[in-house]
Design a protein that fits this description.
Order of helices and strands: EHEHEHEHHEHEEHEEEHEEHEHH
Structural class: alpha/beta
Radius of gyration: 19 Å
Distance between the termini: 42 Å
Strand order of the largest sheet: 3-2-1-4-5-6-11
Largest sheet: 7 strands, parallel
Helix content: 40-55%
Number of strands: 13
Low-confidence stretches: none
Number of helices: 11
Mean pLDDT: 94
Strand content: 15-25%
Length: 337
C-alpha cells in the first residue's frame, strides 16, 4: 500500500484517479482549494463520492499557500505525489493571467519543494498538449521542440517541465510529466467543449464552434487517462544512460526525468464529435460558426509510442462509447431528458 498525495482531488481527473488508487488499496490524501473557476457544487459532488471511502482523507489547501504545503508534506510522509492541481483553460489565461502565474508557477514550485524535502519516491505531474503550440508536424512527439507556446497556460505547463527537470537534476527527484490530450468523460469540466455542447443542445441554444468547425482533437476518455497514470506512478522515472547533450532528447535526461504524451492516438474531427453527440442526445445542434480563438490550435494528435512501449498503454475507448458514457452521466446528474 502506498500513501499518495493527489492534488486537485476535487477536479475532473484528480477525482477519477483517486477512486482508482483507492480501488487497488492505496491510501489517498487529496487536496483542493475548491475555487470558483467553474461550478463549486460539481467539485463538492465529486468530493462527496470520495469522502465516504476507506483510505481517503481530504484537506482544503491551496497549492499557492507555501506554509500549508510545507506542513502537509511534514504531516503525512507521502510515498508518491500525483500533481494535478492547476489553473486550467487556454482561453481563461488571456482573461486572467495572474491565476496561471500563481497556481501553475508558484504553486508548482511549492509542490517541488515539498517533494524535495519530503523524500518523495516519484512525482507525476500534469503537463498538456498545449505545449506544442505553433508546431504543425503531426502527430506530436515528445522529442519535438516546444519553444513556441501560444497561450500563457501553455507556457506555464512548459515551465513546469523545465522546473521539474531542474529538481530531478539537482536533487535526484524522480519526475514524470504527462502531456494530456483533450480529456473528456463523466464528471468532466463545464468549461470544456463536450460539456458546453451538451448543455447548449439540450437547451435548444446555439453552440459556439470555433474555426468554423475546421478543428481536430485527440479526444481521450478519462478512464483511459487514469489507467495510463496509474501505470506511470508505479514506475519512478530513471535517468537515460544514452542521453547525449550534443543531441539532447527533450523528453529524457541523465537525471531521473521523463515526459510522455498521454492521448488516444486517434484524432477526431470536431464536426464528427458533434455528430456523435447529436446521435447520443437524439437532437440536432444549432451551430454558431466562429473564427479561431486566440491561443487555440487547429489540431492535436498524440504520438504515444513511448508510453505504449514502456508501459503497454493503449487507449481502448472509442469516441462513440466515450461520448455516450458522458451523456448518460450528464442526464442523470442534472436530471434532464
Amino acid at each position: 500500500m502506498l500513501r499518495i498525495l493527489v492534488t486537485g482531488a476535487a477536479g475532473f481527473i484528480g477525482s477519477m484517479l483517486s477512486h482508482r488508487l483507492l480501488d487497488r488499496g492505496d491510501q489517498v490524501i487529496g487536496i483542493d482549494n475548491l475555487n470558483d473557476y467553474y461550478d463549486v457544487n460539481l467539485k463538492k459532488a465529486r468530493l462527496a463520492r470520495l469522502e465516504g471511502r476507506e483510505g481517503f482523507a481530504f484537506e482544503k489547501i491551496d497549492i499557492v499557500d507555501r506554509d500549508s504545503i510545507s506542513t502537509l508534506f511534514e504531516k503525512h510522509g507521502f510515498d508518491r505525489v500525483m500533481h494535478l492541481a492547476a489553473q486550467a483553460g487556454v482561453r481563461y489565461s488571456i482573461e486572467n493571467p495572474y491565476a496561471y502565474i500563481d497556481a501553475n508557477l508558484s504553486g508548482f514550485g511549492n509542490i517541488l519543494e515539498g517533494c524535495r524535502y519530503g523524500g518523495i519516491e516519484h512525482l507525476v505531474y500534469a503537463s498538456s498538449s498545449s505545449v506544442y503550440g505553433a508546431n504543425t508536424r503531426l502527430p506530436f512527439r515528445e522529442d519535438d521542440n516546444v519553444d513556441h507556446p501560444l497561450s500563457l497556460y501553455a507556457a506555464s505547463k512548459k515551465a513546469n517541465e523545465l522546473m521539474a527537470h531542474t529538481y530531478a537534476h539537482l536533487y535526484g527527484l524522480p519526475c514524470t510529466g504527462l502531456r494530456f490530450f483533450t480529456v473528456y468523460g463523466p464528471w468532466g469540466r463545464p468549461d470544456m467543449a463536450l460539456f458546453k455542447f451538451t448543455k447548449g443542445i439540450l437547451a435548444g441554444e446555439a453552440i459556439p464552434v470555433f474555426n468554423r468547425g475546421d478543428m481536430v482533437r485527440d479526444f481521450t476518455f478519462v478512464e483511459d487517462i487514469v489507467e495510463g497514470m496509474v501505470r506511470v506512478i508505479d514506475t519512478p522515472a530513471t535517468g537515460n544512460p544514452g542521453w547525449d547533450g550534443s543531441e539532447p532528447d527533450p523528453a529524457t535526461s541523465r537525471a531521473p526525468y521523463r515526459i510522455y504524451n498521454i492521448g488516444n492516438n486517434a484524432p477526431v474531427e470536431l464536426m464528427r464529435y458533434i455528430a456523435v453527440l447529436e446521435e447520443c442526445l437524439g437532437r440536432k445542434a444549432k451551430l454558431e460558426l466562429l473564427p479561431m480563438q486566440d491561443g487555440d490550435v487547429p489540431a492535436t494528435f498524440a504520438d504515444v509510442t513511448r508510453l505504449k512501449e514502456e508501459f503497454e498503454f493503449k487507449p481502448s475507448t472509442s469516441v462513440e462509447d466515450g461520448v455516450a458514457a458522458f451523456v448518460r452521466w450528464y442526464r442523470h446528474y442534472y436530471g434532464v431528458e
